[in-house]
Amino acid sequence: MEARNVSTTPSLMREFLRKAGGAAVIDGGLATELERHGADLNDPLWSAKCLLTSPHLIRSVHLDYLEAGADIIITASYQATIQGFEAKGYSREKGEALLRKSVEIALEARDMYYERCRKSSSDGQEDGKILKNRPILVAASVGSYGAYLADGSEYSGDYGDAMTVEALKEFHRRRVQVLAEAGPDLIAFETVPNKIEAQAYAELLEEEDLKIPAWFSFNSKDGINVVSGDSLLECASIAESCEQVVAVGINCTPPRFIHELILAIKKVTNKPILIYPNSGERYDADRKEWVPSFSLHEEHAACISFGALEFRSHNNLRASVMCSRVFESVFVGKRSIVKERFSKKYRHPTLDSKLTVKRLNAEARCMTKARRLGVSTPVLYAVDPVLHTLTFEYVEGPSVKDIFLEFGLTGVVQERLDDIATQIGDAIGKLHDGGLVHGDLTTSNMLIRNETNQLVLIDFGLSFTSTLPEDKAVDLYVLERALISMHSSCGNVMDRILAAYKKSSKQWSSTFNKLAQVRLRGRKRTMVG
């Protein structure tokens, strides 16, 4: 990479954002996508393991994100440290070579993408892929000292009283030097858990006089402070005071906290703000498990943006913000339901409108496809891209959630329970064989039509097309967790659903095999890095 004068560093991101139309999109979860491609990441090196075993998968994931519209891709170096490689028996030289390799793979993916754009005869879209010759940045990821320890301290920020700024600088120094020299466009200091590590990063950038910009991204578990309990305002002020830091933000944080954290950061800096929250789960460092959040719907808050930057995680490339309202209305004399996706004032207007209309149309297409596959959904009356609304048939009847909760109070009516479970399994099997994943299979999104007792699936706002057994398995797993948490009094209703799914789906075997894996690692996976 061509050396930059440090005095011009702050302008790099703003110029990039100007060319990107005022907002940029980051790629998503690298490890999640690597697992979807078949990688086994059960190792303290986490996704960095693939630098050794399957670099082609990393390149493939980078390309997938670029073709999905990402403007910034992050290298597979979050968990990659020289000390970590040495602990696995590799030499220091090999460890440094692997760090450089993480950047080289991302740069190669960008070059390959540009070549595909050059050869494409389309106007930016081809087979659902975005092939547009646009500015793309490669960010070299630097995970915290806690990430190297692989003991959950990256999510607690507790390094012990003996840890010092000097010790942290020495831990990170050579790693940052090697990554910077490998040619990325910037360094991404991610999931910064405490003030002492932020100070170490800032001093390191200044001491080494690295001619490369950086961003600092903190994580929070209370919406006020970083995870260690240190003041977010103080941490963000450190980033503000470092000239080479060109953006400040939040990652790996429950979506319900994002808005307030953005406002807090804005109090101490005018630098662009980046946001890439997690799925809504929180990491319990004592239990070493990801546990469900206290907000039922925050896992859907997938795409949150502010000011000049927008960042999204893995599922976010297919998901939508839960920022809509549903109300009853009348359409051509018929009782109807209107779902309105309203604008986010903290998001760039052009990007907001583009994303809103895209998700509106995607939801309508998924509903229509579901009906073609033989799954009952509300009749779609109208799509309004100006008002950002979908108008549906009003379905008379209770939700499956209400029926199952009533069973918990008055006793299970076994025949009705079996009928509903059979209909659920049959419907999901048809969706999955048709390449459609619902994305939000909860009993709240299932109705029973009064006059026919027919199951009706609603809310396709998170739906997407996929033939991957992994996606289908996750769809089933979401339903299973919802049933366990809300309807345990109904017994093993999931077993009945899966039995019906097996009869309905011709592809049940591969999905069930993957479901077993998802159950092991999913929302109660053990943290390995």
Automatic annotation (TrEMBL):
EC number per UniProt: 2.7.11.1
GO molecular function: ATP binding; metal ion binding; protein serine/threonine kinase activity; S-adenosylmethionine-homocysteine S-methyltransferase activity
Boundaries of every Protein kinase domain copy: 316-529
Keywords attached to this entry: ATP-binding, Kinase, Metal-binding, Methyltransferase, Nucleotide-binding, Serine/threonine-protein kinase, Transferase, tRNA processing, Zinc
Domain of life: Eukaryota
Root EC class: transferase
GO cellular component terms given for this protein: EKC/KEOPS complex
Reaction(s) this enzyme catalyzes, per UniProt: L-seryl-[protein] + ATP = O-phospho-L-seryl-[protein] + ADP + H(+); L-threonyl-[protein] + ATP = O-phospho-L-threonyl-[protein] + ADP + H(+)
Signal peptide: none
InterPro entries: Bud32, HCY_dom, HCY_dom_sf, Hcy_S-methyltransferase, Kinase-like_dom_sf, Prot_kinase_dom, Tyr_kinase_AS
Domain called Hcy-binding: residue spans: 12-338
GO BP terms in the entry: methionine biosynthetic process; methylation; S-methylmethionine cycle; tRNA processing
Entry keyword annotation includes ATP-binding: yes
Family of this protein: Belongs to the protein kinase superfamily. BUD32 family.
Protein name per Swiss-Prot or TrEMBL: non-specific serine/threonine protein kinase
Organism expressing this protein natively: Corchorus olitorius
